[in-house]
Design brief:
Shape of chain B: globular
Structural class of chain B: alpha/beta
CATH superfamily of chain B: P-loop containing nucleotide triphosphate hydrolases
Number of domains of chain A: 1
CATH class of chain A: Mainly Alpha
CATH architecture of chain A: Up-down Bundle
Largest sheet of chain B: 10 strands, mixed
Number of helices of chain B: 7
Structural class of chain A: mainly alpha
Helix content of chain B: 25-40%
Helix content of chain A: over 70%
Oligomer: heterodimer
Number of strands of chain A: 1
Distance between the termini of chain B: 36 Å
CATH topology of chain B: Rossmann fold
């Protein structure tokens, strides 16, 4: 986004919004870890731990991706430095780790949903389903990293001229590929990604989301349901933020030329939505268990005792 | 009086353990470790060769797994399991009268021994039946418990029931142990208090607690 000039004031507000959001995310992670420390039963501790890691991850990832500078699509698909392994690590952290951490969080929350269902129903036979989803997830992670490696290193391990040409026809970029290495890389990555599993990775996450919704509806634990609701709101707003970045900033047909107008509105929307999404994470963390306060009269009695 | 199986809790109760022929409720949020109080009570009963009955909506193997987290192992010498799977008797959540008949039958059969009962199904039963039905069910069960010289510990989930239901439930029990999470400044504390216990003077004090493989550690909570 920084390639387009924006009024300094707006950019300053945006930075304040990011700092606020990061602070809220770290604060949410802190409360999750505090709650984890106070709990005894491992499944609840695990849920709190992964809730903390999700908060922490997004709290750090958002400002880092802003400071990295380029629009998200560029930061993912083109080498940022001359160090291949560093770029691969950056890609893994910025693009794959988010999905993995969300999936592990969901995996830790489903057993809690089951235990808090009076009839002890296992939503969508999660105990078995999760094994399959884990396998798909691991395969996707490996495949995605290999696909990106193939592009970044220039080895084009999975290069497929026929499909690339077909994709070029569909996207209307046939003929420009040889002259445009970035478009070549993007197209190749999309093709390879579709081959190897960018899409299934998100499908796995979607399945886990549906399982959690069903589990949440069956659960009779008001705290668990409340925590899940707040987390759902976080995910929903976060998806809107991501969509704003990819759809508003990058006009259809020309991924390299975001207009000032679009970038301005993306900034404004992000400025509002990112802190809100992290407020939801914070509420989700605090809702994991009922947190009471000692009333003054109780404290007095306690001290007398 | 039957020991709680936890030295620190015995001390809180005047070194005597739970009152004879009593029914005790342990109430707290999910994950705080209510069940552990029941597990240690059962373990102590097994050591003293009492008849121990564990009533659970979970499959036996899941309870055995949970026990391991507390350093306990009932796989060789365990209680009589009345569980949804893998127990001596099959627990069917939808058959309230069947549960009642079976429980009374088991108590009667073992009336020549000291009996300890741990039950973790009340919250689920309350969610699936009208509260009045469960009050009636529990009143009858508790009468049988006292008739056969048993001590019963039941866990109840905080956050699953309206306050009036919890208040009414507490009236049915001889003792109530409350485990809660409190926010003090920027920390979360797990505190315990004896809300009521037959034969024990009222105790308004809160205690910090934690579990280890050797049991539960309790210390008075001093507000900072």
């Amino acid at each position: 986004m920084s390639s387009v000039d924006l009024p300094t004031l707006i950019e300053a507000f945006y930075v304040v919004g990011l700092v606020l959001a990061t602070g809220l995310g770290i604060y949410a992670a802190y409360w999750s870890l505090q709650i984890r420390r106070a709990l005894i039963v491992s499944r609840y501790r695990r849920q709190a731990l992964w809730g903390a890691l999700v908060s922490l991850y997004f709290a750090i990832e958002i400002p880092v991706s802003y400071l990295a500078g380029p629009v998200p699509s560029e930061s993912i698909y083109t080498p940022l430095t001359s160090n291949l392994w560093f770029d691969l690590f950056g890609y893994f952290v910025s693009s794959i780790f988010a999905v993995v951490v969300l999936f592990v969080w969901a995996d830790s929350a489903v057993p809690v949903a089951r235990r808090t269902d009076p009839l002890l129903r296992d939503p969508f036979r999660w105990k078995r389903t999760r094994l399959f989803l884990w396998a798909v997830m691991i395969w996707n992670v490996v495949a995605s990293v290999v696909a990106v490696f193939s592009v970044m290193s220039g080895t084009y391990i999975f290069y497929s001229p026929t499909i690339l040409e077909l994709f070029g026809h569909v996207s209307g970029s046939v003929g420009s590929l040889p002259e445009n290495p970035l478009a070549d890389s993007v197209n190749n990555l999309v093709v390879n990604g579709l081959h190897l599993g960018f899409v299934p990775k998100y499908l796995v996450l979607a399945v886990a989301g549906v399982v959690l919704v069903v589990g949440g509806l069956r659960s009779t634990d008001a705290n668990f349901r409340s925590s899940l609701r707040w987390f759902g709101k976080f995910v929903a707003v976060f998806l809107v933020v991501v969509s704003v970045d990819t759809l508003v900033v990058i006009p259809f047909g020309d991924p390299l030329a975001p207009t000032t107008f679009n970038v301005f509105w993306a900034f404004v929307l992000n400025l509002i939505l990112v802190p809100i999404s992290f407020y939801f994470v914070y509420r989700s963390a605090r809702s994991l268990v009922p947190l009471n306060r000692l009333a003054p009269i109780e404290t007095e009695l306690e001290l007398r005792h | 009086m039957p020991t709680t199986g936890l030295l620190s809790l015995d001390q809180l109760l005047g070194n005597d353990g739970y009152p004879d022929r009593s029914v005790i409720m342990v109430i707290g949020p999910s994950g705080i470790g209510k069940e552990a109080i029941g597990y240690w009570f059962t373990r102590s009963g097994l050591q003293q060769k009492d008849f121990c009955l564990h009533v659970t909506r979970l499959p036996t193997r899941e309870v055995l797994q949970d026990l391991k987290a507390f350093g306990l192992d009932f796989s060789e010498k365990g209680p009589f399991w009345f569980s949804s799977e893998g127990g001596e008797l099959r627990f069917d959540m939808s058959d309230l009268s069947g549960i009642s008949i079976n429980l009374k039958e088991i108590l009667k059969k073992n009336s020549d021994r000291k009996i300890r009962v741990v039950i973790d199904v009340i919250s689920s039963l309350l969610m699936l039946n009208p509260p009045e039905t469960i009050y009636k069910f529990l009143t009858q069960l508790f009468a049988a418990v006292k008739q056969y010289n048993a001590v019963l510990i039941a866990t109840l989930e905080e956050g699953m029931h309206p306050p009036n239901v919890i208040a009414a439930m507490q009236q049915l029990f001889d003792g109530v142990i409350e485990m809660k999470l409190y926010e003090e400044g920027l920390t979360v504390l797990s505190l315990l208090r004896i809300r009521k216990m037959r034969g024990v003077p009222p105790q308004p004090a809160y205690y910090r607690f934690s579990f280890s493989k050797s049991g539960m550690e309790v210390s008075p909570h001093v507000k900072r």
